[in-house]
Amino acid sequence: MSNSLSPLFQPITLGPLSLKNRIVMAPMTRTFSPGGVPNDLVVAYYALRAENEVGLIITEGTTVGHKAANGYPRVPAIHGEASLAGWKKVVDAVHAKGGKIAPQLWHVGSVRKEGVEPDPSVPGHSPSGLFMPGKPNGITMTQQDIDEVVEAFAQAAADAKDIGFDAVEVHGAHGYLIDQFFWEGTNVRDDSYGGDLVARTKFAVEIVRAIRARVGEDFPIIFRFSQWKQQDYDARLVETPEELKAFLTPLVDAGVDIFHCSTRRYWEKEFENSATDSELNLAGWTKKLTGKPVITVGSVGLNTSFVGAEHGMAMSAQAGIEANSITQLAERLDKDEFELVAVGRALIQDPEWVIIQAPSFEANPALHGTRQANFTVVSFTKKMILIGGTAYTGEMKKGIFGVLNFVLPHDKNVLSMHCSANEGEAGDVSLFFGLSGTGKTTLSADAKRKLIGDDEHGWDQGSVFNFEGGCYAKVINLSQEQEPEIFAAIKKGAILENVKMNDNGVVDFADTSITQNTRVSYPIHHIENIQEPSIGKNPKNIFFLTADAFGVLPPISKLTPNQAAYHFISGYTAKVAGTEAGIKEPTPSFSACFGAPFMPLHPTKYAEMLSKKMKEAGVNVWLINTGWSGGQYGVGRRMPLKYTRAMIAAVLNGDLGSYRYEDYHIHSVFGVAQPRICPGVPTELLSPRATWNNDEAYYETAFKLSNAFRHNFTQFEEIASEDIRRGGPQRYAH
Fold it and tell me: What is the β-pairing status of strands 135-136 and 130-132?
């Protein structure tokens, strides 16, 4: 077996379509186009694949202009002014990178369920109202319905050509609408669109002919078909080469230029009992029978199956995946069994960085130079992260965050931030910085504001954007009344940790027998009110959250730019008993930039960028103490969540305006401006000293904390500017 992959990288010309290599991108369905409109993130996604030398990009399924074409939220459309404008940006970006691109024209048929956008009341449309044999869904299409869908495909193709696409692909595979007409299990019509195999091709033939009439003879039409269906992986359209020829011939006559032959595993021979050419796969047979160029696809570049045993993935099939390397594919390509090779899942991933996690491998510190047996090693040279000795999946997330928190500020002039963000109805953006347990996730999940993101953001020129896509929240004493958004987000797809369930699978959020550090992680779209895409304008307000277990910081105070920089570099909260092993009393905890483990650059770098951006954007910065009042932990009580929400609401509503002496009191130790009144909050809670009712004990504790601030900041004094140093506590303990 040759090790040469050169056949994959040979140029090829197929009629008017000239490609730099034989690699085709055939991506899976994506849901990153809110309202059906491809946005800048979609543009960047396809541009990156073109930049990395993919010969031909075939897009995700794009819904044609029929009321029942769509089956999933947030998939792109290829009709309507906004969607076409979005695709025009994609096409231009791909061409700018030297790539070629074709849209995959899509109608899901009976896969659609009522309740799906754009019109939730529209049922699925299909040849016989069947999702699969014996399982009805939706309605049976009338002749008028058929004519409308044919026209929708033709118009989509014409629009695609007009905005610069290099070809179109008609998706006639995998159990979607066109394939439902092909399959006898879902097409039981007794008119001219039903009957034998050739008769069942009539619908597809009409679509291809209509497209050809609109785009002309010199515009490539690709047709994708498959034996298997998502409803039945074992289904087959044809059993013999003779039947396959009968099926393909009408499509060739209608005007198909290239066939995209979808199989589950490209190396499997299509017809076991064929007397000749028995080793050919579906693509090989299609080329032999039609003379047309073909694309092969099926587990290319994978080392494991994307389906399990429940779909017929036997151990023998897995062994086949492991045995059939990419070099065998190149050899078959070199033999002209097929012209092009489509890669799906292996190309969906961003190839720039690789993470390898080996939970069972423990390092030998003496041999490997690590501090202990578990480790995370990041190589910027190899663009690789190695993780070993730990099954904690958060290490993967933290590793990538660490990379981005270096690359974004250092190479892109983008401030990376460990914070959450949301946006109000007026477009006003707020950022929430805070360490674990301070309420960052809770306070940013606000039913009246759209969540941009929970944990990781960048601040570019004029915008804030999320780069995590998930949420991670504490669930100790979680209730629907107190935190409805997070409570509702705990559904299929969420992961709970350190919690106890009863025999009925109901979680007891008050049970802390494992640890008080009970958590949940979930995709951001589990929050109903999210910003799509996850981008907002420059922030108007920034909140630094701290759970001060010493009970001496005001529940809300306004910071000057210098104070903001100082507190940002400090990143203060407090640990209390039960949160971490060995903690028995309140202990100051400082994490620079509210995320020191993720911040590889010096903290002053991030602080200076933050200060600059705050001044340019005119941002107000607030210090919110979600911790204790009336005494330290064990004596006082935790600030009620309803009052913290009221303080933040007062800021967002403009009830707490610019600093004036009449409205604010300057804290005698920390120098921050604490409001004298705040709507919805008892006035006595606004002064932490007053809640103690013991001035001597209060100031003793306040000075203790201020000295902890100063001691922590000594590590930054030589680099921090004088202005930033002046942002610290104003009085020293005697």
Answer: antiparallel
